[in-house]
């Protein structure tokens, strides 16, 4: 089931327009029985949309094509703080930053869908210059 949800997140990331200043990121949030949100591309957008509709994300699983960011250059709140505030139970890990470490330090179970890691990384090959 993890692979099916990750494939949905990858499909969302493919909908992004590649630009040199941004990552292509896809996200799916599920409670295990239904997909709560997947038609908005980034974890930030998905969490904001669910919050706007007062949909609880406590104990859900988030599938993203990248590790939630731990710092932002813009004035936006880092995704790792959004995940913690939303009480997401299981976000994944794909890039190097301290987001996963921070989530684990707060007791969040982090999973890696390693079978799809290369496919997720390929979505942002435009930034590997």
From TrEMBL:
Q: Where is the CMP/dCMP-type deaminase domain?
A: 1-111
The terms under GO molecular function for this entry are: catalytic activity
A single BP term in Gene Ontology = nucleobase-containing compound metabolic process
What InterPro entries is this protein classified in? Answer: CMP_dCMP_dom, Cytidine_deaminase-like
Gene3D superfamilies assigned to the protein according to its UniProt record, in alphabetical order: Cytidine Deaminase, domain 2
Superkingdom of this protein's organism: Eukaryota
UniProt protein name: CMP/dCMP-type deaminase domain-containing protein
What is the organism lineage in this UniProt record? Eukaryota, Fungi, Fungi incertae sedis, Zoopagomycota, Kickxellomycotina
């Amino acid at each position: 089931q993890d692979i099916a949800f990750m494939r949905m997140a990858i499909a969302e990331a493919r909908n992004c327009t590649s630009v040199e200043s941004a990552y292509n990121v896809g996200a799916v949030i599920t409670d295990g029985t239904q997909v709560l949100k997947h038609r908005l591309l980034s974890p930030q957008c998905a969490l904001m949309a669910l919050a706007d509709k007062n949909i609880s994300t406590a104990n859900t699983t988030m599938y993203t094509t990248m590790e939630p960011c731990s710092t932002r250059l813009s004035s936006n709140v880092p995704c790792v703080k959004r995940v913690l505030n939303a009480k997401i139970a299981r976000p994944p890990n794909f890039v190097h930053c301290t987001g996963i470490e921070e989530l684990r330090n707060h007791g969040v179970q982090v999973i890696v869908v390693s079978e799809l890691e290369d496919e997720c990384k390929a979505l942002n090959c435009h930034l590997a210059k």
